[in-house]
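Lecture notes, unit on protein representations.

Consider one protein chain, 677 amino acids long.
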Amino acid sequence: MSALLLVLKFLLDASAVQAYFVLSQPILETTRLDPIVSPGQISGHVHVIAGGSNFNRSMTYESARQSQCTTAPMSLDLSNYWVPQLYYYSPSNQTYQAIPVYGMNAYYLPRAGSDGKVSAFPNGLQMVQGNPNRRTYDGTADSASITYVCLDYNNNHQGDPAWYERNNFFEHNCPDGLRAQVFFRSCWDGVHVTSPDHVSHMAWPSGGVNGGDCPASHPVRLVSLFYEFIFAVQNFPFNNGSDPTWVWANGDTTGYGFHGDFLSGWPELINGTNILQQAIDGCNANNGVGGELNNCPPFVPYLNSSLCLPENPLVNEDIGMGHYISRLPGDNPIWIGNGTKPTYANYTDANTTVGNPQSVIPAGYSFVGCVAEGTSGRALTGASYTGSNVTRGACVAFCESYGYPLAGMEYGSQCYCDYQMRNGASNTTLLDNDEKCDMKCANNAYESCGGPNALTLFNNPSLYPAAEVLPAGWVNSGCVTEAINGRALASYSISSSSMNHSMCIAACSSQGYKYAGVEYASQCFCGNILSTGSVNASSTDCNMACSGNSRQLCGGPDRLTLFTNTKAPSSTPVLPTGWTANGCWTEANNMRALANYSYASNNMTAQNCIAACSSRGYKYAGAEYASQCYCGNVFQSGSVQAATSDCNMACTGASAQFCGGPNRLTTWVNQTWTGDQ
């Protein structure tokens, strides 16, 4: 259960009203539309709407039933419930800010007449209750249908008239929110589902909001409908003195002008049964089931907890959600006192348009669905960010800027990118989007951005890199760590803001090295062996895009994307009879380790060096710095055996052989040498 629904359930449990059932639900949208009072037009003031996703400027019963989802916890109820948006008025600069809504509770109440009959709503019933121009309480049922409760769960205000339920705004703040309530007429004329004034096809029973028998002119007793919309007024200061604090979207500062609209979207028959009527008839014991809909058997197959988002355009205007605006949307100057409603001179909505409330997805990307996070790590390990500005469009644009084809939003405010799904994640096994990816985007309440351990995924097939063609003999050897006490590839390096795989391989190949490794997006390292401690790492560790090609990965922090030349140096060349490898040795102290004879050649090989030393009768042959050969019968003082990795330079005459390194000799020994040669 979401945090919002938990709040609504707490508010519901605290209410004394009993009901056949209660539909507690979040808000679908907030916009200046009203298909009952202003069909096909932009309405006079901003409304808060719950219910079916196909809410629009113009609506019919049929269009309501075409909703793809509903905010209601019962999927069959595609009705829409709406009231004005409540604003906070800041007297210091005469600005307004929309007060957030926790959600709403729609009560379906047991108010039968003396005949005991209560009917479900007829198809397409439309009702408006309350008068936006009302300025006082006159004792009528219509006036009594609008009430307010000031919520304070930590203090007892019993016996204090300032806290009694009332028909206008309170004169103090409400520590746990303001509950705005509207009770609808429940006697229907049996013929018309609406009327020119949106009211007269309905009437009050003899006892008004408390029930009684219906008049002969309106003989059909419908289930009684009662709204609660809970506004978080405690988040704003209370303006003591002559300045109003709360203002309805139509400018009303008294509270008397609150009103509600309802358009029924309940199905007439499901498999030959009217589910709403069945619930009214069968879920009324002990005053009904309240909010525990699972205790109403007709509803159980249709219980719903999925995220629902609007399908249609909203009015393109700033409604002050989360920030202050200089005036209320529409022709709605603040209305203080009991005089005629004020207006703006020459006001017009001619330039006000509607548009899609969801963010724009960059071209080429398409919605994949809801996918699970990886089983052993992040599914997407490329670029990422977390922030209050995350929307679907913003995340996809971020990933596109780095050249990534996959963009995933998670937990409302997190954005991840990559070229592939990793760590056991799959983009072909989809989760239920409405249940698992049901968190609204941090910067757009009209679209979802994943959920806990689930990503809303987009994909652009055109951004996947073509199969990489490496130079002949070179292969991708995966991701490796740096060495324990130095570089994994320590022989040669370059850095470039244009780094890519080909550049690094070319640099290492030109120096005759077996390995090429790209690290930290822009660094290239070369060598003929991997230094001690460098081991294979997870492919997800090499997740940084190359600085010169965002479609390639160039290692990561202390991680190298490694390439190997399969035709590169080998430490075991074919040697003349009697000669064997003798390891890597350092130079001596202040002189050559093998000091009897030497020469240099651009065609140096192990065989050539051995031949030169053997022909002169020497026991040892040593190749250094790729092109130098040294001979002798003993190693001079200070020359000691070195790590094999120190002798990592390819021979100038055979790139498949090692010929020492800086101050290091690859050495060979004649095992048949007797000293008489």
